[in-house]
Fold these 4 entries.
Entry 1:
Amino acid sequence: MHQNTSSTRDGSTPLASSFERYLQDKGKGRGGDGGNYRRNAARELERFAKWAAGDRGDDDWSGIVPDGIDREPTFADLDERVFREYARHLAGDRGLKQNTVQTYYRYISAWCGWCVNEGYLEAHYAQRASAMAPLPDDDGRRPGDQQAWTSEQRHALTRHVDEQAREAIETYTSLPDDVNQHDKQRARYAALKATRDRALVFTLAYTAVRVGELLRDPNDPRRRGVRWEEISLDDGSMDVYRKKQQWDAASLPDPVIAPLRSYRKLLNPPTDRWPVFPTFDQRTLSTLVEDELADRGERPDAIDKQRDEYARDLLLALDKDIRPPSITTDGARSILKRLSGAAEIDIDHPKHEYLAPHGGRRGMGEVLVRAFGYTVAARYLDNSEEMVRERYSHIEAGELGDVATEALNEIDSTPRNVDKQG
């Protein structure tokens, strides 16, 4: 049994009793309740706990508790052999890619290191060479970030959303004066949705801003989506909460300005605190409108009457300044799936059958590296130059290949003196 200076953290402490405190330390926001890392780490800790207790769907595996002892796994049961066996278990899952196995193990290894610092364990067993030996070599790829929009894909998608927005605006603005009020509202709603989608696509395609910096992340309360007060169309800039946990200005290049300006004019938000990309989900908006009007003292029959006057709750929310939440990052993926299909874009990618949000950022990175080099691209992408060089190393490799080809062609075309044998 491992000895510990803390009387409450000896070897008999159950593993699971440490999880919540660890997750709070690693979480974001007030109380450490938010953040993608916390969510992913919680999932992997739960997976590890089930495996340690013998629950892995394998009759030959009884867990890490010694045979004949009926209790849940404790810290006394942990050593480097346990982590070696878990690494072997992850590596043996044929459904996991090499880099995914590495990622899952890192979550458990990080928890193990925290346990050492907190006095639960004497040593960082998970980082020992023997424990990590069964892990496959990392193939160098990162889950989910390989797709990059090509120039053809970017132009096809932006052209499609531009055409859809122009048609919707034309339909709305050309309605006769005597048109039915609800028909006019439906046309405005369609135009709003089309111009919102166009502004979103252009922003993702040309700014290289991370989708989590632009839209709402339900797992991180600080990421509530960009608001109009954080955008300056005249200056061509946008304040976003960066991955490095601080606010910073991102550039809005020329192709993004006109779509945003047209969309804002049509939306006409009641205040600048409105999200730039509000959700259009009807269930969310109906609940929001009913609750907000009730909080303002409206009676149920009066609320129903007001809602009946509008073809869509979003239009009522605009008139009554009932601020909706931003689209979520998952919502953006759904929008891009719909638009990629409607635009009939040719996509050949092993993971994504649509143009994923991160692909817009990565595609813009390709453009910047090729046009201006790694230093400028790193500044625009809000990354270190070292990371940008690593992510876009294929560009440098290709350029060096061209240099080598040119050198070979130069040498091969040079006349040579050949000794003639008599």
Note: The two ends are 88 Å apart (CA to CA).
Entry 2:
Amino acid sequence: MPGSNNHNKVLLLHFSFWLLYFSYRVYDISQHIGFKKAVFYVSIPMSLNILASYIHYFAILPGWILKKNFSRYAIQLLLLLTFILTFRITTENLAFANLITNENYYKTVKLSRVVSTLWDTLSFLIFTGMIRFTLDWFDLENKKKQLENEKLVAELNYLKAQINPHFLFNTLHNLNYLVYSGSKKSTEVIIKLSNIMRYMIYDANRDKVPLKKEIEYMNDYVLLESIRLNEVFKITFDIKGNVHEQEISPLIMITFLENAFKHGVSDQEKDCWINVSLHVTDTSIEYKVSNKKINNSIQHKLKSGFGLENVKKRLQLSYPDAHDLKIIDADSVYQVSLTLTK
């Protein structure tokens, strides 16, 4: 489990630090008083430093970090230091007075010794405390990233859920008419609508889908729209490059095609047309949709409408630094160009 692995790494870090410190101190002092005396000489103060460090680490410091109560923390720290210093100086006087016979250091209690012992203990409290702060900071950052990722996934799922509801309603309405009138096209509509629903329910929930599936989805969409509009428009779909080995975030390309139908095709308008091109290279996917403008006021709504704003947000989430979206609003032509870089 990832949590237990991190816990083991922290334990190893602490153990390694104390082992290195103990080894160095014993090696240094053994040059003067011998190995056995050095082990004894280092063990007592080190044991008390360990005791103070982890009382502070587990019992006192969290009160400041989690509850932000500095005054309580300061009082507890002062009590801990008073107890440790008193106990350490007393213990060292009893244990070391005869260990180093030519020194009076462990036979008296001077201010300089109290300050030295205090600084020695504080050094370890500060060091282990910094480890606690660092680990808590990394843990907080990981939790923030996890929450951000969860938020992004939730937002993406929300945006996906908003796609094409009116298209589905219109298709069902048209299907009802075709079935009622006994049209042979009703079976084809049912199949294509089934394909679209399957894609939206199962494939669209993934982060990436094969580009080929997105193209098949758009082809089914075009066929349903052509039936709904009685084929009163012309459409070209130019595909170049290898689309079989590419992946893309789902339900992005369809938005531009849907907008082209919604705002560029009408069964009451003549000579409506839509041009779609998809060029795949080794470094990019270039997608372009252009259509005849049938109403300038409607086209103005398109630029600020939900569909385009939706896809802009999704592009920022799915391709934050790997997309380029350009919109050309000419007198009679509306064109959207999207480049996704790999």
Note: The radius of gyration is 36 Å.
Entry 3:
Amino acid sequence: MTSREPTGLQTDLYQLTMAQGHWSLGRADEEAVFHLGFRRAPFKAGFALACGLAQAVELVEGLGFSDQQRAFLATLTGNDGEPLFDPGFLAWLGEMKPTVDVDAMPEGTPCFAHEPLLRVRGPLVQAQLLETALLTIINFQTLIATKAARIVAAARGDAVLEFGLRRAQGLDGGLSASRAAYIGGCVGTSNVAAAAAFEIPVKGTHAHAWVMSFTDEEAAFSGYAEAMPNNCVFLVDTYDTLRGVDRAIAEAVKLRERGHEMVGIRLDSGDLAALSKAARQKLDDAGFPEAAIVASNDLDEYRITALKQAGAKIDVWGVGTRLATAYDQPALGGVYKLSALRANADEPWRRMVKLSNTPIKTSTPGILQVRRLSRGGTSQLDVVFDEAFGPPEATGSGPVVARSIDPLSDAELTLPNDPEVTSVDLLEPVLRGGRRVCELPSATQIRERAKTLLAELPEGLRRFDDPSPYPVALEPRVAALKRELIVTSEG
């Protein structure tokens, strides 16, 4: 557990009022199972990229309430002006230590709608209190990692840098966005705090203000080259872009004479396709074919794709606002649902389903696990099963026929019965009794994992527009139980 302030207040008020309700009814220590997932992949994509687990683990490990935090809760009142929380409940919160079990998809795992990314099992009140903060962490980082993966795919091997801190939702949001963007495939960030915290390569040179602070552009470039000769990417569009390129080249010649090389130039406005082609010609003709052309200015996967189709000569893409804020979809819409409950370990589990007039909001009951089936290095299908029932097994009569997990679909899916098919269970033990049981990888290791696993997805699934659907099946016994619970609840 970290030495920072306990994380209990990182929640919505209704989590605490429910917690007091369970405590007052003697239900606080009933054993509960919750699952965290999402109902639709973001950006109309075919997948999402799981991210945020490391921070989620720290949050769980820090679950508790300090004296000061409980003193604040004691000041809250109900609509009658009386204290909202019972002193006995607040005292109980002061003694609470995290004892939950957490199983989760490792960060960097491609994931899909209606399957759990994370499972929490333990005392009902603890599992309930974690809901809001776990959703905050996993929702945002998964969203940004997914966006980054799409932008990196659009760049088709070119380097992508994350430049979004100044437009992020606060400094903490910027820190999380930089981490998630790196995991999604960006090669570096402009965010120095993120670079220090997560060992991410940090990149950056100068802004328009540097140029404007000098009497002219030549003096600005010369001054920067004098001060930082080993970090020269000249921003050339403060005034006239192509004249700026000429001035950068003139300074690059002087740098070379002093034993240094200009890294490149940056374009931040105008017709990036036309300007980059003209700049490339100038740089090549002047003897600087290795000088990179960096582009920025409201880039995303769609604009990068269009620029490449237009023949832009851009080597490095600096992506800011549209990545760090997930500009076209600012929330993942993840959910955290109770799926099983029992009074104690001697009692049978009561599995439950959350119904809705909106079918996509109907939850799946059980103590769930996700098994991914692959053939020839390509992911084929995911199966969601209840660990108490066990995974689906092919029989002598042939392969198992399962139902799509999508509540809007009645499709049946055939689970392959093929010796060439390999499988892996995606939810791995992370915490047991509130303590870590695994070593969490670095951001760089997660980034490499994501790169490998994204390459294993079917090609059609990775399209930006109208991606092929990826099949996610509900194991037959779970599907039958879900239908039974729906009928019983509706009756």
Note: The chain has a mean pLDDT of 95.
Entry 4:
Amino acid sequence: MGLFDFFKKDKESTTQQASLDAGLEKTKTNFFEQLSKAVVGKSTVDEAVLDDLEGLLVHADVGIETTVKVIDRIEARVARDKYVSTGELDRILREEIAGLLEDNNSGSSALLDSAGTTGQPYVIMVVGVNGVGKTTTIGKLAHRFHAAGKKVVLGAADTFRAAAVDQLIIWGQRVGVPVVSHGMNTDPASVAYDAVQKGVEMGADVVIIDTAGRLHNKVNLMNELSKIKRVMQKVIPDAPHEVLLVLDGSTGQNAFLQAKEFTKATEVTALAITKLDGTARGGVVIGISDQFSIPVRYIGVGEKMTDLQLFDRHTFVNSLFKK
């Protein structure tokens, strides 16, 4: 790697950090304004401060179960250290949240490194309800792989919505990658099969399959996703290698409910949490990661193609607590 490559990588890292900081601005502004009010006039972390902190974490959509874990961890530290000042609370909270994410194996996985190294396409099946940014996430994901020099094929298997098929085709044109589509009201499994087959024929590194996200009939959803998996396995026996669930971070507790339903319908192996830039509910990343013990792979912090970022727990927590 030459000097320019190092400079370019450092510049990209700086840009991504700025996007992350901006994307989490609403969450941290709201949280720390409230936290400052909770500790005003107090010198130590006492029961009243912890009660206020608990309310703030729940309000940030960290979730009740995860909030209780965080509070328990802080209470244990206060009991052990005997005296903890309110000035230390930010640091302790940062450390305990990072520790919780560590326990639940949340962090970026080097998909860019693994894609294409096995001699066959790395197949990602993307699931999620309509409106969470699923198709947009696929487009941005395709951009990441394509920019890294990977050959990408997209499969428009959300055939129940014409808009989803058309949108994916537009993303393919924008990014410069082929899209396999049979149009609306066609068999989703057939689209997935042809997309994987095309990926094999053209020596692609990655195949990304969009799927329908209808939760009103979970039995049909489960059957459909199972069928898509089975037909892809006729081409690549261990496909899909990743089942990526896309959740809208701005919906707060509703995102928890969606995660619960989709993990029942299929084996979800990774999460992408979108639209964090438009909400004060960024704590949902922490809660969902903790409660479902599924790695958060990507977070969406803006509209640009580069605003789908690999999730790194330390970078996320540091940005969340940056003032």
Note: The chain has two domains: 3-103, 111-312.
